[in-house]
Design a protein that fits this description.
Distance between the termini: 39 Å
Order of helices and strands: EEEHEHEHEHEEHHHEHH
Largest sheet: 7 strands, mixed
Strand content: 15-25%
Number of strands: 9
Number of helices: 9
Radius of gyration: 17 Å
Structural class: alpha/beta
Length: about 230
């Protein structure tokens, strides 16, 4: 079973409460789930911190995501508990500050990862905030058992790609159509959020609004001075 696991929490030091800030009349975390719904998967789960559960629960239900609450800072343990609870074989890992995930690129990467039985996969060269990670559930559980540093446990995947002797890593340069490493799509600051509102407004009525090429084209049309 392949599951999209979206990690999210309410508090943010640089942009407080960003998950619930409006993006096109819905909270940003809903827009993230909306984008992830375009990626093929058997199951979709919002894995949040315990103190975020009540705020996120109705939004997860509306987006057709299950919701699971776990440790706030030990996010690797949170993922491990989700994997065990739902008997997951492969994880598509996403984060709550990326409302413009390239759904087509995510599907392609995950298909590649499954075809070669990669433990960890990610595309390089795509915009910051456009990608996902495809991870074998068994590999992630092993990391959960072995990783000890707070950095590895908070950020989930560093232990895997720091140990190529233990894991089958697949980290190719993305196909050219999705390459734009100079573009920033993640939302981590007020400036990011202001830009995201303008981009979302330009994309919302486009039939291919979750395709990487469409997002890149419209971003460049709007923010030419930034690229």
């Amino acid at each position: 079973m392949t599951a999209i696991i979206l990690q999210a929490r309410l508090d943010s030091s640089r942009l407080p409460g960003k998950a619930l800030l409006p993006l096109g009349e819905k909270p940003m975390i809903f827009r993230v789930m909306e984008a992830l719904n375009f990626i093929p998967a058997d199951l979709r789960i919002l894995a949040c911190s315990v103190d975020s559960f009540s705020a996120f629960s109705p939004l997860a239900s509306e987006a057709d995501f299950k919701i699971f609450a776990g440790p706030k800072d030990d996010v690797l343990e949170r993922f491990s508990r989700v994997i065990r609870s739902f008997s997951i074989d492969r994880v598509i890992r996403a984060t709550g500050d990326n409302p413009f995930v390239f759904a087509d690129a995510a599907a392609a990467l995950n298909a590649e990862a499954m075809a070669i039985n990669a433990d960890y996969s990610v595309y390089y060269g795509i915009p910051t905030g456009a990608g996902i990670e495809s991870v074998s559930a068994a590999a992630m559980l092993r990391a959960g058992n072995e990783a000890v540093s707070s950095h590895d446990r908070e950020h989930v995947c560093p232990y895997l790609y720091a140990h190529p002797e233990l894991y089958n890593l697949h980290r190719p340069l993305a196909p050219l159509r999705w390459q734009s490493p100079d573009i920033r799509l993640t939302v981590d600051t007020q400036e990011d959020y202001d830009r995201s509102k303008e981009l979302y407004a330009a994309l919302k009525d486009k039939p291919q609004k979750h395709h990487g090429t469409a997002i890149i084209k419209i971003y460049k049309n709007i923010f030419t001075e930034a690229v």
